[in-house]
UniProtKB/TrEMBL annotation:
Organism: Tetragenococcus muriaticus 3MR10-3
Lineage: Bacteria, Bacillati, Bacillota, Bacilli, Lactobacillales
UniProt-listed InterPro entries: EcsB_ABC
Pfam families listed in its UniProt record: EcsB (PF05975)
Name of the protein described by the UniProt record: Permease component of an ABC superfamily transporter
Coiled coil: none
GO cellular component: membrane
Signal peptide: none
Keyword Transmembrane: yes
Keywords from the UniProt entry: Membrane, Transmembrane, Transmembrane helix
Superkingdom of source: Bacteria
Transmembrane intervals: 21-43, 55-75, 96-118, 130-147, 168-185, 191-209, 281-298, 304-324, 350-371, 377-397
Amino acid sequence: MKAFFQDRLKKHQKHMMRYMQYVLNDHFVLIMFFLLGGIGFYYSNWLKTLTPGYFLGAIVTLIIWIASLHIGRFVSLAHPADQIFLLPKEKQMRTYLSSAFSYSCIFPFFVLLFILAFTMPLVVVSTGKSFITFFFYLFSLWGLKISHLEIERMSIFQDMKKARKNAYFLWLIFTLIILALSLWLQPILGTIISIAQVVLFHKLCWQTMDVPLDWEEMINEEQSRLHRIYQFINLFTDVPEISTKIKRRKYLDPLLKRISFNQTNTYLYLYARRVLRGNEYGGLYVRLLLIGGVLLYFVGERWFALGIGALFIYLIGFQLLPLYQQYQYVPITKLYPLKEKQKLVAMKKLLRLLLFFCAVVFIGIVCFSLSSWSDRLIVSVGYLLMTFFFVEGYVPYRLKKMAN
């Protein structure tokens, strides 16, 4: 069964790598580099304003660490057909699940490593601990995450809901005690207790459990995990595994009625209707608008605010460009006497409206976050120019490249 899991894992990784080339594109890397650099710059300046022994810093760190322990799910790689074809092998499935558990521990380790590296300067300022204690904190957090995954694995067995809730409550108590001891007393003490609780939860959640598998629950959990991954990938490229959901949204009909019913507005109506009633593009637009707005609210420097807003305007527009090809295989658009250039005109109109609204929202936010009127004017003009050059310059070039 170990070989079976490794074979399934290789296929899964190969499948995901095909999508990663679209996710880790130049635009995404550039934006993340800029955002992380800006956040790091402001984070460093904020730390310089704190006095040694800043008590609230340890509280914030504790909350961040507890939240980060919930990142990463148990990866079973179960397929819907497994409940039929693997049912005769249920007794051997423990070997399969042990391999799956080992693999599940890898991704959370690197997530915790990154989060701990980010919060460690705050820990040093708040508690006065040395940077060398980083490794004790890392092993403590990873031990707690391993135990959390043990609890996650309990859910795929029958009649384990109550036991899982009790185990999670016990784990939460251990987490608070271990992290509190690590932050306010001795980090090595928290590491020792963390190792002990890993052994305890392994015995409670795995060795003493001898009940049949809940195949349906295991498959549902895995499908739910994959769906969240595909939702993220869908921000960058089309994912066949995600079916588009259409909602009526009658309250948005007045916006569609503003488009006059004539032949020249056919594609404009189709594109606008897809954005307003579909979760794919409408949800993407709203999420990026909110994220950009929240970031701008906490930015008090002119050039950084200009860069953040311009990047989000570009990112929103870039992610909406695949809308251009949504109706190219719909037969009715081929039968109806429509000129091909109407698609470009309609796409530019829609993007001009959406990005202009985005720019206005960002301008309203920076008017609160920036204190100088000259800074507000420079940033506002920058947002409007970014919208203009993106729609009039980049969109025709990009759509022509997509069509070839």
